[in-house]
Write a structure and sequence with these properties.
The chain is an alpha/beta fold and 138 residues long. 31% of the residues lie in helices and 17% in strands. The strands form 2 sheets. The chain has a 5-stranded mixed sheet with strand order 5-4-3-6-7, with helices on one face. A two-stranded antiparallel ribbon has the order 1-2. Helix 3 links the parallel strand 6 and strand 7. It is rod-shaped.
């Protein structure tokens, strides 16, 4: 409660805002002094290409195909599941870049594709994505 000085006399209710302003200033100083350490997830954003990459030579591209009936082919040549690792190691023994691509038929099970990826990683070969440009060149 406060009293009005001058004018008509009497007592009236008016809120004292001085303590609220003091609290506001203290909070303002605190948030200005304390550094804000907001850390999110680290993300690597793709960078724009400086020039378009040349398509690799179709003769040097290795494509492992997983057919819907469970058969495997390396560049259209049939290969058995137990010989896949040995065959890939023989192909990539003399190559500098060890990247092969996987192509699966539409109704192929994911477990079969994952098994091929495991065999390729076990042989030290990186798995690449088969792009439409490479598929058209085949």
């Amino acid at each position: 409660m406060a009293m009005q000085v001058g004018g008509k006399g009497g007592v009236f209710a008016e809120m004292n805002v001085v303590p609220l302003i003091d609290i506001l200033l203290v909070l303002l100083v605190i948030f200005m002094i304390i550094p804000h350490h907001q850390k999110g997830l680290d993300a690597l954003l793709p960078q724009p290409a400086t020039r378009p990459a040349a398509a690799p030579d179709p003769e040097t591209v290795i494509v492992v195909q997983v057919l819907s009936n469970g058969e495997l082919r390396i560049n259209w040549e049939p290969v058995a599941w137990d010989q896949l690792g040995n065959r890939l190691e023989a192909i990539f023994k003399e190559r500098a870049t060890k990247v092969a691509f996987i192509r699966g038929d539409a109704p192929v099970e994911f477990a079969q594709v994952a098994r091929v990826v495991d065999v390729m990683h076990g042989s030290g070969i990186s798995v690449g994505l088969l792009t439409p440009a490479l598929e058209q060149s085949r």
